[in-house]
Amino acid sequence: MDFDTFIELVTHNLIVSFVVVAIIVFIIYRLIKTARMYLGAKSYVKKAKKLDKKKFNGMTLVEKISKKRKKKTNSFKKLNGRGKKLVRKYLTHKFEELPVITRYARGKLFKRSNNRLIIIIKNERRTLKKIGMKNGMKQLIEVTNKYDCLDEVLTFFHNLPEAILEEQEYDVFFGEEDIVITYIIK
Q1: Which of 1, 32, 57, 185 lies at 20 to 30 Å from 17 by C-alpha?
Q2: Whole-model pTM above 0.85?
Q3: What distance in Å separates the CA atoms of residue 108 and residue 127, rounded to the nearest whole number?
Q4: How crowded is residue 2: how many other Cβ atoms within 10 Å of its Cβ?
Q5: What value does the mean pLDDT take over residues 71-78?
């Protein structure tokens, strides 16, 4: 088949050729969009790592809020106003950051990841609570109030991005009831 017969075939079948061109353009568009999302997530993860070291460091936050709460307590409701504001700001940042890190860690350059991060609170074998990333901050604060585990939750969220990026399991034990906070990616 030479070039002249190909041109003649395209001009006689305009509808078919437009459909084929539209499909090819759509596929190229989706590949470019997915690659841009992946590369954008990659740069976001780099910025988030720097930001976590400087501004949103969970370990320094635990030290700061230890002075801003009633003695011998470890819950959100026992913090004073400034401590609650710091914890809310930190958790808001983490709830924005973790889905992007999950997409980056589980995705590939031309394949979009639809995996979701779920935080699980469990007691030995029984699951007490599953917390999604969309509306999970209120539920997480309720858990910290119920089980007196604010410091452990902040430590968990501080180390969670590295565990997700390295695809490792990560658990934190707290409380007298042997409660575990962990994560899964579905």
Answers
A1: 32
A2: no
A3: 31
A4: 6
A5: 86
| Residues whose CB falls within 8 Å of the CB of residue 142, separated by 6 or more in sequence, listed in order | none
CA distance 152 to 74: 9
Quickly tell me which residue has 């709460």 as its tokens: 69
Structure tokens at 166: 């390295």
What letter represents residue 62's amino acid?
V
For the record, the structure tokens of 131 come out as 């917390």
Q: Residue 182 is inside which H or E element, if any?
A: strand 179-185
Helix/strand/coil for 79: strand
The residue among 61 and 44 whose pLDDT is bigger is 61
Structural domains counted in the chain: 1
In order, the DSSP letters of 97-132 are HHHHHHHHHH-BTTB-----EEEEEEETTEEEEEEE
User: Residues, the chain, total?
Assistant: 186
- Cβ atoms of 147 and 136 within 8 Å: the answer is no
Residue 54's pLDDT band, with cuts at 50, 70 and 90, is confident
CA angle centred on 164, ends 163 and 166, rounded to 5°: 65
The CA distance from 10 to 18, in Å, is 9
| Predicted confidence (pLDDT) per residue in 105-131, tens digit | 887 766 766 788 999 999 887 999 999
Q: Which domain holds residue 8?
A: 3-185
